[in-house]
Amino acid sequence: MSNNIEVGNIVVGKVSAIKSFGAFVTLDEGKEGLVHISQIAHSFVKDINEHLSVGDEVKVKILSIDEESGKISLSIRKTLPAPEAKPKTERPRRPKQKKGGLNYQDPKNNQAFNPIADKLKAWLEQNK
């Protein structure tokens, strides 16, 4: 582990404060950086307090340093091994449809789709 505060280095720091958007980590030389909530873990983090507490020692990777403001962006996630990719499962495919939307079949077939116009004629005949 390098204790130099340079972009790309991995250093050890102590969590000094936790906010809803991230955790502040104090590094060597009294400098402080922010670990954004998206950089805490590989999985979704809803509540940072479930992952970190004030006083925890953490390994962080230095992502960027803004020379003007002195802000340091850190990542805990980049120091952790990446999770294994889950194998993709095949989803069943839908049957291809003919142009024009629904697969229209001859109304004489009992399993076919019968348009409302055919039913309307039959209803009008029954109500005479």
From TrEMBL:
GO MF annotations, alphabetized? mRNA binding; structural constituent of ribosome
What Gene Ontology terms for biological process does this UniProt record contain? translation
Extract the SUPFAM superfamilies matched here.
Answer: Nucleic acid-binding proteins
Pfam families associated with the record: S1
InterPro entries (UniProt xref): NA-bd_OB-fold, Ribos_protein_bS1-like, Ribosomal_protein_S1-like, S1_domain
Give an example GO cellular component term for this record.
Answer: cytoplasm
Q: Which residues form the S1 motif domain?
A: 8-77
* SMART domains linked to this entry: S1
- Region Disordered: start and end of each range? 76-115
Superkingdom is Bacteria
**Name recorded for this polypeptide:** S1 RNA-binding domain-containing protein
Organism, scientific name: Crassaminicella thermophila
